[in-house]
From TrEMBL:
SUPFAM superfamilies: Nicotinate/Quinolinate PRTase C-terminal domain-like (SSF51690), Nicotinate/Quinolinate PRTase N-terminal domain-like (SSF54675). This is Nicotinate-nucleotide pyrophosphorylase [carboxylating]. It holds the Pfam family QRPTase_N. Involved in the catabolism of quinolinic acid (QA). InterPro entries: Aldolase_TIM, NadC, NadC/ModD, Nicotinate_pribotase-like_C, Quinolinate_PRibosylTase_N_sf, Quinolinate_PRibosylTrfase_C, Quinolinate_PRibosylTrfase_N. It is an enzyme of class 2 (transferase). NCBIfam families: nadC. PANTHER family: NICOTINATE-NUCLEOTIDE PYROPHOSPHORYLASE [CARBOXYLATING] (PTHR32179:SF3). One of its GO terms (biological process) is quinolinate catabolic process. One of its GO terms (molecular function) is nicotinate-nucleotide diphosphorylase (carboxylating) activity. Pathway: Cofactor biosynthesis; NAD(+) biosynthesis; nicotinate D-ribonucleotide from quinolinate: step 1/1. Its EC number is 2.4.2.19. Residues 128-298 form the Quinolinate phosphoribosyl transferase C-terminal domain.
Amino acid sequence: MMPEDLPQDRPLDEEWLSRVVATALDEDLGGWPGRDVTTQATISPDATVTGDIVVREDGVVAGLGVIAETLTQVADRFGLVAPTVKAMVADGDRVAAGTVVVGIEGVGHVVLIAERTILNLVSRASGVATHTRRWVEALEGTPARVLDTRKTTPGLRELDKYAVRCGGGTNKRFGLYDCAMVKDNHIVAAGSVTGAIAAIRVAFPGVPIQVEVESRDQAIEALDAGVRFLMLDNMTPAAMATLISELRNRDPEYGSVRFEATGGLTLETAGAVAASGVDFLSVGGLTHSSPILDIALDLH
């Protein structure tokens, strides 16, 4: 099965979330259990607070599960009671500036120590989800879907790709292990498109294969070698439309072929690219260039 065919409603992996929050807290607190020299010096450990996680700009929220996990881990580190968390919205919801997305009540030490880790992760995830939603909206009315890539922040791929799903996008492969993707350097190393495909089938039989092509000749070579997923790299919409039309007319010969546009795509050109007949548009910028969504913690 191609990665694009996997369910796109998968929740954030809980084991991953626990690990990444622990790493982030170690980074912020200087190890286990660590310390917050400002909060622990200026606020009584018995003091309680109430507050809200508030979005400062319109967007799509994602990663809200980070909040309870972070508060729980901070409480465990310092032998305190975890604050209560009340979610007002759900991941994937579009919200307006000023919306309270989560209410928090509990020990002030826990809330303030957890604050930055929470905001770093939720703001990032929500930024990716918001950017992804813009692409989904640009493709409305077409059958094309927007895909993410492996251009993620190291260590945060699970969160980045979850955020893409929250924004309505589709996950492409998660790593180098779940799908073979033949690109120009692989073709050079193997000597040809055909050679690269044959080598993969010998070494990893049963692994799905996709091939990035830059010309009609490479596309035909990949199809003749049995691949049925072509990535059309840096082609104009007109060139893609011509090639896709020709190959769709050869369905009796090749069967169903799926096409992905890749390279240099923008929101302004998304509609024209989709009109070429591609099934997917892959956009590395969903995860490598999305600005964060401005989110803050406001204590009452």
